[in-house]
Amino acid sequence: MNALTVDNLSVTYDKSPVLQRVGFEIPEGSLTGIIGPNGAGKSTLLKSVLHLIPRLTGDIKVYGKPYKEQRNLIGYVPQRSEVDWDFPTNALDIVLMGRYGHIGLFRRPKKKEISLAKEALKKVGMEDYANRQISQLSGGQQQRVFLARALVQDAQIYFMDEPFAGVDAATEKAIMNLMQQWKYEGKTVLVVHHDLQTVEDYFDHVLLLNKTPVSYGPTQQVFTMENLERTYGGAISFIGKSAQVIQERG
Amino acid sequence: MEIFELFTKANAQWVLFGSILLGFASGVIGSFVLLKKQSLISDAMAHATLPGVCLVYMIFQVKSIPLFLIGATITGLLATYSIQFIVKHSRIKTDAAIGITLSVFFALGIVLLTFISKNLSGNQSGLDDFIFGQAAALVSSDLQMIAVGSLVIIILSTLFFKEFKISIFDPLYAKGLGLPVTFFNAVLLALVVGVVVIGIQMVGVVLIAALLITPPLAARYWTEQLGLMAMLSGIFGAISGLIGTFISTLGEGLPTGPVIVLCASVIFLLSLIFGSKKGLVKKVVATV
């Protein structure tokens, strides 16, 4: 069963194309890394699939049904840098936002929601920081708060935008554990990822993207030197270093 | 006017009541506006209400507050959309777009106002009071409208508290949850317009935005919780409204708006120095 089907997705920004005719199918229970150079449209892909930015063309299906009917199956972890962390609120409050869709208009979070949020904070090792001001959290802790917020959504498919960017070892481990747990529960995870050296450790599927998909499939088959060169084009030295790592690992 | 008279006369009581409620409503709404980084847009919108009021007077030739408020709403919204249009369709940045919109609309307002007072015997229209506000000139029907309008604004911002919070902090995520973020933004904008149009008679178009900006800025120095910040900001606004109106009704011809704004600024200054979360004293003590 395919958890996600994207067909003929195109997105333009100021009339110049950012994504062209993107199509792929993501099997249920897979961990997919979306890999590509800067400006390849990785974040744009995530946002357009999630209907957060307008698409020129494109059909998105979740478990075979139109996206809009299946929205409650989707969990989203945006890039940490996209919000103002000086906002006057605490960690627990941010996690509770993950329940706003369930709580409904004009209602306040009840005890049930608060205990769910605390449980989620515990799962990412942040239970002691529930009442901490968000501006006083480290980058990694902020990322874990966002993870907890996605966790309380209790989704089937999780989208994460650069969750590993600039985080500490504890957070990296928390994200990896969470992804493994989601996989174990049959959930599907798509992650925009930057660091080529960790791709093989984190993901069982890879989507190589440069405005249009270069290749998609199981990491073993797709994450090859040849495909990377096709994806990254001229960035030779960068590629060379990663390729070395790939070869060393055999 | 005697001080005691102010407290016993029915109209004067309405004036104080109205200014307290207006101050509270604008303080609460201002908290959201400040965090949305739209304080200056609200200032441009406030200035842009003046031509609306003047145009309505020129068309209908009567002093009708409800009509004035309709005119104010139309040009105020027009200015807001102009700013958004300029930013979206040109290379001009938001600050410059706000600057040019504010000056064009306000200049038009002043030209129309001068024309009215020279040619349409507008001296009796009381339109001049819209520039800096004149609480003493308000009649009880005006004040009832201010009071009811403020109450509606306070109730709505309480109802939409959680929705405003998420759509300001993380609009994309909120959209991802399927929440109607555009609608929430429109509600917030409507509430800002509401504060501005009911407040211009009392505080004036030039300074009404200060009631949206200064109290929440002051409140931010005392708390790190949005709910508390909005409440505190409302209280600061109410105190400024109360004291400012009181002082302005004591002296003949003291414009209400500037006095209220000065009160709010004193509160801000005290918060800047003594604020328990971000105040200067606290910072100095922490570094010693």
TrEMBL record, chain A:
Pfam families: ABC_tran (PF00005). Keywords: ATP-binding, Nucleotide-binding, Transport. SMART domains: AAA (SM00382). Residues 4-236 form the ABC transporter domain. The keyword ATP-binding applies. Gene3D superfamilies: P-loop containing nucleotide triphosphate hydrolases (3.40.50.300). It comes from the Bacteria. The keyword Nucleotide-binding applies. One of its GO terms (molecular function) is ATP binding. PROSITE patterns: ABC_TRANSPORTER_1 (PS00211), ABC_TRANSPORTER_2 (PS50893). CDD domains: ABC_Metallic_Cations. Belongs to the ABC transporter superfamily. This is Manganese/zinc/iron transport system ATP-binding protein.
TrEMBL record, chain B:
SUPFAM superfamilies: ABC transporter involved in vitamin B12 uptake, BtuC. The keyword Membrane applies. This protein is probably a component of a manganese permease, a binding protein-dependent, ATP-driven transport system. It is a multi-pass membrane protein. The chain crosses the membrane at residues 12-35, 66-87, 96-116, 136-160, 172-192, 226-247, 253-274. It is found in: Cell membrane. It comes from the Bacteria. Belongs to the ABC-3 integral membrane protein family. One of its GO terms (biological process) is response to zinc ion. InterPro entries: ABC_BtuC-like, ABC_TroCD. Keywords: Cell membrane, Membrane, Transmembrane, Transmembrane helix, Transport. This is Manganese transport system membrane protein MntC. One of its GO terms (cellular component) is ATP-binding cassette (ABC) transporter complex.
